[in-house]
Amino acid sequence: MARRVMMRPPQDRSLRSSTVSAPDEHTLVTGGAGYIGSHTVRAMTQAGRRVVVLDSLELGDAHAVVDAPLVVGDSSDGDLVRSVCSEYNVNEVVHFAAYKSVGESMHAPAKYWRNNVAGTVELLDACLDAGLERFVFSSSCSVYGNPPRVPVAEQAPIGPESVYAETKAMVERVLHWYGVTRGLRSVSLRYFNAAGARFDGRIGEDWTYSINLVPIVMKALLLPDHSVSVFGDDYETPDGTAIRDYIHVDDLADGHIRALDYLAGGGASTAINLGTGVGSSVLDVINAASAAAGAAVPYEVVGRRAGDPMATYADPATAQEVLGWSARYGLEEIVRTAYNWHRQQVEGSA
Ligand code: WQD
Hints:
Blueprint (H helix, E strand, L loop, with lengths): L5 E2 L18 E5 L4 H12 L4 E5 L14 E3 L5 H10 L2 E6 L6 H6 L1 H21 L4 E7 L22 H20 L2 E7 L1 E3 L17 H10 L5 E4 L11 E2 L1 E3 H16 L5 E5 L5 E2 H12 L5 E4 L14 H7 L7 H19 L1
Parallel strand pairs: 2-3, 2-5, 3-4, 5-6, 6-7, 7-12, 8-11, 9-14
Antiparallel strand pairs: 1-4, 10-13
Helix pairs in contact: 1-7, 2-4, 4-5, 6-8, 6-10, 8-10
The protein binds UDP-4-deoxy-4-formamido-beta-L-arabinopyranose.
UDP-4-deoxy-4-formamido-beta-L-arabinopyranose (WQD) binds next to α6 and β9.
């Protein structure tokens, strides 16, 4: 049975009175104590939306949930989900909770099938039991694998190249069939490379577990004896290093809010890329971070990482057409907010 610790902001007294009327409707955000989840929660609450977070804190940080009630438990616990949906009058869900390490997924596939796929089925059944009809899912550009061409549109072939990516593609198919059989309407958001931190500096990425490029670059700038291993400079790209679509986490947060609005307005189920449409190389990131920090980033070029696509970046047209969304920020804002956040964390722990 899940451990259930309710942490409510002081101002949220509506649920404590003895004669509680039906509370206002809330959005349930699973994994809302994680990186993208916490930024989405923050953006939602600052936009005046009511949110309740469900997170096991296995990988999330309770301190990242700054202005919403947090229920600590597993999103695959159907009884707990039904209880939260009832107590908070939940009418829609944003589902972030998942394991996300590509490398780990190849060594421990069962852990990923159980948590990311079976766990989501349990969540979906509980949500439908609670009468929910709208579901936004945290998917990934990794469902495309190594795309045959760039920019990548939603009609590109689905070709996952890791168990992690396959779990994202499988949940998208599960959602399709929940739509056919149960009338659930969903939007699967295929993120490109999430990076950066909230502009107000209140939350950011926990670099403890991350092996992604931007936090690695930040460690090289802020921690002694850290440097970046650049995985290959012999690609057929302008500077020889691999190209990705780095998207600010606050832009991703905004994309989720617009997806919720789209569904609330009656929108049909779909899958949508969230990317800037701009490709940046590894050296572009390193140079931008160096400019933001006013310091050189120590790095060395090593061999390519197996499975890395040479270049992938989004065709963002559908997000604009369907959601009215486009990225507001670029690489400069990403590295500046990331650097400010991680420097604050390092100085605060000194
Ligand atoms: C970025 C670039 C590396 C580390 C990630 C997620 C994936 C999906 C998209 C969410 C690559 C290079 C990296 C390092 C390097 N997001 N690099 N040295 O692999 O593009 O995919 O974002 O689902 O799930 O994994 O991200 O940050 O690992 O790599 O040279 O130490 O930086 O080769 O070109 P990736 P990444």
